[in-house]
Structure formats: C-alpha cells, structure tokens
Design a protein that fits this description.
The chain is mainly α and 114 residues long. The chain has 5 helices and no strands. The chain is elongated and about 55 Å long.
Length: 114
C-alpha cells in the first residue's frame, strides 16, 4: 500500500489488525500461543502497513515478541541458579508495559518511536 491512497475500508482493516495483535499479545500472558499468532499476522500483513501509521506499531509488536521469546529462553535457563525467576518476573512486567504503551499510543493515533 506504500505510495497508494488508502481507502476508509483499508484503514479500518489495518486498524482492526493492529488492535487484534495487541489483544493477542495481552492474552498471551495467560495463553502463550496467541503471541505467536499475533507475530505471524504482523509478518503476513507487514507489506500492507508500509508507509502508514500502523507500520511503527507492527515493528513495535514484532520487536516485543522476539525480545520476549529470547528473554524467556534466557530466564528459564537461568532458573537453575535462581536469578532466572527474577529475570522472568522483570520480563513479564516489561512485556505488560510494552503492550500497554503500544496500545495507548495506538489509541491516541500516535506512531511508536523505536
């Protein structure tokens, strides 16, 4: 859609997709697989959001997912020496912060600054 005029219907679809991914990320705190579904949506629809307000939110969501995955792997490995539990808790708080900050900026129609 880059360089093209975006219709109201396209705008609504991109808006709904971005919102859906934030919801999927939030639900992933309870049901981890939804975060994976969200990032798949991000990658599949990434070309559609290029050059729009939603692009920065997709980048934010993708980055949040991958940092969460890598941090979780490291945290679980470090649970052997107990510091991993602290890291996993901090990561959980950070993940909530990223979802809330992203959603609030999305709701205010502000791009995410990476």
């Amino acid at each position: 859609m880059e360089g093209e005029l975006i219709t109201n219907q396209d705008e609504r679809k991109l808006n709904n997709l971005t919102l859906a991914v934030y919801i999927l990320q939030a639900v992933s705190l309870l049901v981890g697989v939804t975060g994976l579904v969200g990032v798949i949506i991000n990658y599949v629809k990434r070309d559609d959001v290029r050059g729009t307000f939603y692009e920065s939110h997709f980048d934010w969501q993708i980055r949040t997912f991958w940092i969460w995955v890598i941090g979780t792997i490291i945290g679980v490995a470090l649970c052997v020496i107990l510091v991993g539990y602290l890291m996993l808790f901090a990561l959980w708080v950070w993940y909530i912060y990223r979802i809330v900050k992203g959603f609030l900026n999305f709701n205010d129609r502000k791009p995410m600054l990476l």
